[in-house]
Amino acid sequence: MKANKPFKPLNIAVVTFSDKRTRADDSTGDLLQKLMENDGHKVVEREVLSHDKYQIRALVSQWIAREDIQVVVTNGGTGFALDNVTQDALMPLLDCHIDGFGELFRQLSFADIGTSSVQSRAFAGLANRTLVAAVPGSGGAAQLAWDSLLGPQLDSRQGPCNFVGHLS
């Protein structure tokens, strides 16, 4: 942490991809929102969508086009199941991929779930100066992604570098 740098709260949109969950029982979305707000950020949009590639792409496209959203965090749909289309839906929207995000997430996951971590297709990238991060839908995995990767990199005081300077 660089004590001489001020904290910059970010506006974040959160979407859960699930064919079973609703906004009323979206426990992973609730957890992510709590973690983000506890760290000083503001969740400005929150949705639950089914695993429909075109609805996913449409919603996230709208969010990355908005000037008041700097970060989009998705959860769910990152495994190998046939209906998991998060990667197919969002990868075409990215201007650049943050390869290390998925690699490091799988490495950190390995400590918790062993070789099952290779089945995670978590990823992140930048689109229109907006960070888009796709994490698994399990609460433990989403918390790991926030605590170990996203939270620190979305803190403007984090050094030697962080994502904040790349966001609109």
UniProtKB/TrEMBL annotation:
Q: Which domain of life is it from?
A: Bacteria
Q: Name one GO cellular component term.
A: cytosol
Which part of the chain is the MoaB/Mog domain?
13-157
In terms of Pfam families, this protein maps to: MoCF_biosynth
Output the GO biological process annotations, alphabetical, semicolon-separated: Mo-molybdopterin cofactor biosynthetic process
Matching entries from PANTHER family are given as: MOLYBDENUM COFACTOR BIOSYNTHESIS PROTEIN B
Pathway(s) where this gene product acts: Cofactor biosynthesis; molybdopterin biosynthesis
User: Could you tell me the keywords of this UniProt record?
Assistant: Molybdenum cofactor biosynthesis
Database matches in InterPro entries: MoaB (IPR012245), MoaB/Mog-like_dom_sf (IPR036425), MoaB/Mog_dom (IPR001453)
- Would you tell me the protein name for this molecule? Molybdenum cofactor biosynthesis protein B
Which residues does UniProt call coiled coil?
none
The record's function comment reads: May be involved in the biosynthesis of molybdopterin.
Family statement = Belongs to the MoaB/Mog family.
Listed CDD domains: MogA_MoaB (cd00886)
Source organism of this protein record: Idiomarina abyssalis
